[in-house]
Amino acid sequence: MRADLAVLPSAAALADATAARFVAAAEDAIASRGQFIVALSGGSTPRDTYRQLATEALVSRVMWSGVQVLWGDERCVPPDHMESNYRMARDTLLDRVPVPAGNVHRILGEDAPTSAAEAYEATLRALLRTPAGARIDLVLLGLGEDGHTASLFPGSAAVHEQTRWVLAARASAASMWRITLTPAVINAAAEVLFLVSGGAKAAILRRVLEGPRRPQELPAQAIAPSNGRVRWCVDAAAAADLTP
After folding, report:
1. 201-213: per-residue pLDDT in tens?
2. In what side-by-side order are the strands of the sheet with 166-169?
3. According to CATH, what is the number of the domain 11-207?
């Protein structure tokens, strides 16, 4: 699974590059259709990208009234909880840019997991039913040390889901419930951008990109858009184990 790969020298350079890619994708989508649909990711690596997007130089390049904001996954917590992906994106980006409140479609993590998943799938299907939004333009994803992405965990049936767009999931019976987009909708996106940083991710990044294809074991390998592209933006530390 060797993909479109960019290795950046540092985490800061990674944030700069991924923010620039976000802006370019937004400009292209809005110029062609008047709308840019993006699914955000949680985690520490996207946080730096969001902060970069909120800088004056980049804010002015995006027509934020045309941006529709989704999430790739969310923990089942209230929106002000410290572990909420929505809260992280709100604090680092959304409160700092002129995106209309009605364009921000958060996952209702405070609701019962199954209900929240069903409600979010309805939200996505309504948004993507319009002529301007037949699919998500850009999905931002991270990579866990166990090979998970979004909240698609090793061994989960959600990894092979092709009908439902959103499911409730958890890594183990003792772990927190989460809501996640499934490969059924992620793989319909125009572009998927993986953001990976730090030496702790080096071993798993090599397994995902250079090892045998085993998506049930390495869910990130299940992400393969049918009519789009996957880009991997990683820093040098994360790329340390990759074959030159």
Report:
1. 999 999 999 999 9
2. 73-75, 178-181, 166-169
3. 3.40.50.1360
Cα 12 → chain centroid = 19
pLDDT digits (tens, 9 = 90+) for 4-48: 999 999 999 999 999 999 999 999 999 999 999 999 999 889 999
Where does the pLDDT of residue 134 fall: very low under 50, low under 70, confident under 90, or very high at 90 and above? confident
With a CB cutoff of 8 Å and minimum separation 6, the contacts of 82 are none
Q: Residues of 56-75 as b/e, b for ≥16 C-beta within 10 angstroms?
A: eebeeebebebbbbbbbbbb
Q: Where are the domains of the chain?
A: 11-207
pTM exceeds 0.90: yes
Which residues lie below 8 Å from residue 175, measured CB to CB, with a gap of 6+? none
Examine the pLDDT at 1 and tell me if it is beyond 70: no
Q: How far is CA 75 from CA 46, 119, 132, 151, 215, in A?
A: 16, 15, 29, 9, 22
Q: Angle at Cα 31 formed by Cα 27 and Cα 36, nearest 5°?
A: 60
